[in-house]
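Researcher: First entry.
Model:
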Amino acid sequence: MAAVSVTNDLHTPIEVKLRSGEWQVVYPQRSWDVDVSDEVTSVEIRLRENPALKGCCLVSKGSSELWASVGFEAFSREAKGRDRAEARELAREGKRRKEAQMRSEKMIEEAAAEKRNAQVRKDMRREIPSVILLFVLLILCVAIPPGSALAAALLASATVPLCCCLSRVIVASDISSQTDDFYFGKYSVHARFGFRILGFLALALLLLMTVQHALQGFPWTAAIVWTGTLFCVGVFFVLWLFGELETPLTEDDLLTLERERESAQGEVSNRSIRFEGSVIRERGRPCVASWPGKYEGAWESLVSQGRNGDVSAAVVFLPQGTDDYGQCDSIPEAEGLPGSCWCTPLYGEQKPWGCRWFTKWRENIETAVESGAELEVYFFQNHVGKGKVESFDTAGDDNLNREKVNRKQNDYEESPEFKQALDAGLGNLSTEPRGDGSSQYSREARRLFLASLSETEREYLVTSEGLGNSQKAEVAWLEKKGYTYWEVDVSTWLPGEGVERYVPLCGEREPQFYGRQDDFSPRNEDLFESPVPALPGAIC
């Protein structure tokens, strides 16, 4: 009896079987082992994400170990090409997300810093007069000539509290406190320099007073002036030496910084993420009327070009943190639709994000239509024309039904069947997102969930793929109003990556070209062409 082992050294899940057996799922870094009694047997293999890509290998009597990346010739080469293409896309998407996060953080930090600076300016306008008054009083004490011993003593004594305050300034001017940014913002260097100059001017005034009083016969006042000054300087120096002057921010200070950052984040969202469309009034010009939001990189490109006036777009995005998020608008009576706001016909119920976006979107569409624009509706990759609802009147109920079925996935992922898949190596799949926001792991989890549903529910979800939830209502509205539009694949906005070529040895088949793969997701008709593949019985 021969032992056959097929190891999946690819980054994507595969299915394997003997000619007369059933398909077995093998996840990356796992193997499928089976004993066979035939002299010669055939091992078949296919990709989980594209069952149409198949291969086979004849195994003769004796133990055989096969590797998915090399043991199945044409299949292995194409599977590796797809692995390489996806790896490049993941790297590109990871870089884009990181750069976007860095840009966002930088804008938020700049906005928060500007808020802190504004508060600092406000505080300075309130506190600087007090410092000036303190300095003016010191000047007066020096400028007034002592007419008697009593007057000299009073003038010298008056400088003592002033000296204490100014001594704190002198010592603090050379201390880099962690609270500087909070209290002085971007003016920290200027404030420290100003305090230092002010401190030395105060010392100069005290020296002038000492000389003046000595010339007028009251040299003993120097003891009053300098004893108080040196005492204050000494106290503050000791406090600085033991770090007592560098006090951390209080809880109130930290809460203030947090509120300023939250406010800055909202402003950045309103300024950079929020998009209310940019319709160019030009007859015959294409205008993006509906867009699948899960393609974040392409969306960023669309928004950027829309703001620059290069692309006409009617689409609207009011994310959380923006002023109109969660706001709703009532439905005009002339429309004859149920519900207190547009949320009802759009989603079947009130939604946290509201329906203000739909009002703005309708206005943009009307502007585009009046201008004679050619409306464009963008569908998921390889799903042009799919995912529509029956009509705008049924869009809300359809959304509720779809959400009800989709919620079952949470329960499924707590089931023994899903835990069995995890034990079989499901967790070995990458969780890094590609351009459409999905990962190897999330797509496989979705396949397993769909396979667990009844045929009716599964077919319902599969046929609904092609448009986002809000898009379904948008397209239904266009059809309700009788507006014509072009159906476009979103891949026209996705970045190309060139071509790579596998060069065979002499005598092998012609070179194969591998580029961007558009069918990472399995075709719906292939995914359920046969009973759900079993998980491997023997796992290495």
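Researcher: Second entry.
Model:
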Amino acid sequence: MALKNLWEQERSQRLQITAERRQQVNQWKQLTQQEFQLQAELLHQELSSFVTSLHNNRKLQQQQFQQEIVERQLEILQIKTDVWQRQQEYRQQRAVKAQALFHDLQNFRAILHQNVWGGRSHEQAVSPPPATQEKLVATVPKWSISRSSIKATGFRPAVNTMTRKVPALNADNLKSKVQQYIQQAEGTTLTEIEEVIGLTRVQTIDILRSLIKQGVLEQRDRQYFIRQQAIS
């Protein structure tokens, strides 16, 4: 009996200890669940706050980006406007410079024409007269005046102003007259030949060039002389 009572007593003690531990475990489980629930709620709140903040930041960044895009577009538009204005200014400057250059070229052409052709018109200086055209030639031809007579008297003899119409001479006759005048004058200039024979500048240059190529004339100091070989 004593052993049975002792066993029952120990058994009741073990049951009581087990019940107490079970109660403690249940309490711990409840506390743990409450803590987990609180932590979950806190995490959910923090996550919601983070998501809200991230969404707000994203909207703010989008607004900033859009504002920057608008500012960049305005800057690009301003740059395009400045470039267009500069292009217009450069076009106007080029037009003014081109017009000034055109006027300078016209003035240079007029001065060059005056120096080369003198007071005669361009058509008279460039276009030689046709073969059938008649010229006014002095009755006393100037080509018969020698340079020695000019040097002796110190002035040119007066030319007879009476003129008559004679048919134009051919190229061979003109070459012969030019050669004869140069030989009599013992050297002369292009202007004197042009005035005496009554030729245009183009005709005179062509005849002198042809005689130089033939070896009849030679040029020294802007004057034309008969070669000694041609005279002999």
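Model: Note on the second entry: DSSP finds seven helices and four strands in the chain.
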